[in-house]
């Protein structure tokens, strides 16, 4: 009960402290990637739309990083609130913003698709991919924040998240994540997407745990 009370007290200050401008810029770029083609009469195939949505999701993953910058860290490090709780509240705000963005991005993509291509998109699997992109950004931000004295990790975390995402998309065929829509490799690939999502969330959660340090014993 006490944790819920503390979380409620933290919610508004953390909402105000988040760096929404760079997140909004990344989200806007990501939204435009599938939205602009949807306004043209060009008929894109489902694989083309999936590719655009993946690039858009990568923009989301990079944008998420900025929401975990905390320039006030040097002055709030002694605040009696568990790091995990602070991260959880930040994550809830980030998840809410990401969900709204994804709903709009997916909606404009499906609505603008020609020749019924939108109806052939595997929306659930694409949502899993978008969540994984966001989770990788979250994990990069939280891990680097833990070791940052200033609390501003986006200059390193954003490129790191982008490199991790690019690396994940370039995996060899036997463990590839990027496959053709409707192909035999699609379902196994999305099992791997789910594993990657769980791993990223677990890494982010572990990064918030304060492990007790070793006690030093003085020699007499």
Task: Give structural notes.
- It is a single chain.
- The protein is mainly alpha-helical and 220 residues long.
- It has one domain.
- It is built from eight helices and no strands.
- The protein has helices spanning 2-17, 20-38, 46-66, 73-76, 83-112, 123-146, 154-169, 186-207.
- Helix 3 (46-66) runs parallel beside helix 6 and helix 6 crosses helix 7 (154-169).
- The longest helix has 30 residues, at 83-112.
- It is globular and about 55 Å long.
- The model is unreliable at 214-220 (pLDDT under 50).
Question: How is the topology of this model organized?
Answer:
Blueprint lengths: L1 H16 L2 H19 L7 H21 L6 H4 L6 H30 L10 H24 L7 H16 L16 H22 L13
Biggest sheet overview: none
Helix content: 55-70%
Q: What's the domain count?
A: 1
Overall pLDDT, averaged? Answer: 82
| Helical segment count | 8
The best one-word shape is globular
Strand content: under 5%
Residue runs with pLDDT of under 50 for 5 or more positions: 214-220
Secondary-structure element pattern, one letter each = HHHHHHHH
Structural class assignment: mainly alpha
The Rg value, from CA coordinates, equals: 20 Å
State the separation between the terminal residues, measured CA to CA: 46 Å
Number of beta strands:
0
């Amino acid at each position: 009960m006490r944790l819920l009370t503390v979380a409620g007290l933290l919610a508004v200050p953390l909402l105000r402290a988040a760096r929404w401008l760079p997140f909004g810029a990344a989200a806007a770029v990501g939204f435009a990637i599938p939205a602009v083609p949807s306004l043209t009469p060009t008929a894109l195939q489902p694989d083309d739309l999936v590719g655009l949505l993946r690039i858009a999701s990568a923009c989301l993953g990079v944008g998420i990083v900025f929401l975990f910058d905390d320039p006030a860290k040097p002055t709030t490090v002694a605040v009696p609130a568990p790091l995990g709780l602070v991260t959880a509240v930040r994550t809830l705000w980030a998840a809410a913003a990401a969900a709204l963005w994804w709903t709009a991005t997916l909606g404009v993509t499906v609505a603008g698709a020609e020749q019924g291509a939108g109806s052939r998109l595997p929306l659930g699997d694409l949502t899993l991919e978008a969540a994984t992109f966001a989770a990788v950004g979250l994990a990069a931000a939280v891990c680097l924040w833990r070791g940052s004295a200033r609390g501003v990790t986006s200059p390193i975390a954003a490129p790191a998240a982008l490199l991790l995402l690019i690396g994940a998309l370039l995996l060899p065929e036997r463990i590839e994540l990027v496959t053709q829509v409707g192909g035999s490799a699609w379902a196994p690939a999305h099992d791997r997407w789910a594993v990657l999502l769980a791993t990223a969330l677990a890494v982010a959660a572990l990064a918030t745990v304060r492990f007790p340090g070793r006690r030093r014993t003085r020699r007499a």
